[in-house]
Write a structure and sequence with these properties.
With 300 residues, the protein is mostly beta strands. The chain is 0% helix and 49% strand. It has no helices and 21 strands. The strands form 6 sheets. Strands 3, 4, 7, 8 and 9 form a 5-stranded antiparallel beta sheet that branches. Strand 1 and strand 2 form a beta hairpin. The radius of gyration is 39 Å and the shape is elongated.
Length: 300
């Protein structure tokens, strides 16, 4: 006894035939799915039995053809055929039939290693739940207000043998809605936003001096809401300036400490009395760290 699967002309149907040879009387065949008998309903499950007798030997060969309308839930299901005969029974080795079904749902992913910053490459990945998965997609790029944009207004890009498309060197003008659809069915689509604040310009600081010390605020607007990021420029050991971020937000990369240069400046000269002595304290700022020399009446 064996089961032979034939390719179906309908994408949602499985067709298999179970054969039991040389029986007398003819064997009765039953189909099972995951060990449970299938009952023909004339629609989703169609079972067609037949018997062929060899005139010379009077032995019969039993056939049973299964036509089965599969769904996604049938992926990985095992089908088998069992033969009942007065002298005993046989069960075929369970087999997994190829289950083909159309795509019912799409999803679009925006792939990036971290917060999206101007100049980054961003990959759009379209996922379909059909089997086999489609390999032809249309990616609908957002309408750009800049004619010089690397991504033209309302451009539709056909991708074959892949489910991904990469946007090269995104800018703030790249923010907006992106879509993907099946190449042969634009009505089956998915959408995802590259939101305001995801393609944000990198903050830059130039050469710093002590006059630049203070608190700086970067405000990023996201869908009508504003988010603050404070940057503090602080003296360190009275010899250099450091920039420190007090908060991290999406779309702004944390800066490494920067060093600002400045000529030596005496900031204070104080005098204190200690016992029978006078103590003079001189404070200065500068980069590199200033060195001090004392002079009394013009002599060192």
């Amino acid at each position: 006894m064996w089961i032979h699967a034939f390719p179906s002309h309908k994408p949602s149907c499985l067709i298999g035939t179970c054969v039991v040879k040389d029986g007398h009387p003819a064997a009765q065949l039953t189909w099972t799915r995951n060990g449970k008998p299938l009952v023909a309903d004339g629609k989703a499950v169609v079972i067609s039995p037949s018997v062929k007798m060899e005139p010379a030997t009077k032995l019969s060969t039993s056939f049973s053809t299964l036509q089965y309308t599969a769904t996604m839930e049938d992926t990985g299901a095992t089908f088998a055929c069992s033969a009942a005969h007065p002298l005993g029974s046989l069960v075929s080795t369970p087999e997994v039939f190829p289950v083909h079904y159309p795509t019912e749902k799409l999803s679009l992913q925006v792939l990036s290693k971290g917060p999206i910053v101007e100049g980054d490459n961003v990959t759009l990945k379209c996922h379909a739940d059909g089997n086999p998965p489609p390999r032809r997609f249309n990616f609908h790029l957002k309408a750009s207000i800049q004619s010089s944009s690397p991504h033209p207004v309302g451009k539709k890009v056909l991708v074959e043998d892949s489910d991904s498309h990469t946007l090269v060197g995104v800018t703030r003008a790249s923010t907006g809605e992106y879509k993907c659809s099946l190449a042969d069915n634009d009505s089956m689509e998915a959408a995802e936003d590259i939101a305001d604040g995801q393609a944000t310009q990198k903050p830059e600081f130039g050469r710093l001096t002590y006059a630049d010390a203070g608190v700086y605020t970067c405000e990023v607007a996201t869908s009508g809401d504003s988010t603050r990021l404070d940057w503090k420029v602080l003296p360190a050991s009275r010899s250099r300036l450091n920039i420190h971020s007090t908060e991290a937000i999406a779309g702004v990369k944390r800066l490494k400490p920067l060093t600002g240069a400045g000529s030596p400046v005496i900031t204070s000269l104080t005098k204190q009395r200690a016992d029978k002595h006078k103590v003079l304290t001189c404070e200065a700022q500068g980069v590199p760290e200033p060195s001090f020399q004392w002079s009394v009446n013009g002599t060192h």
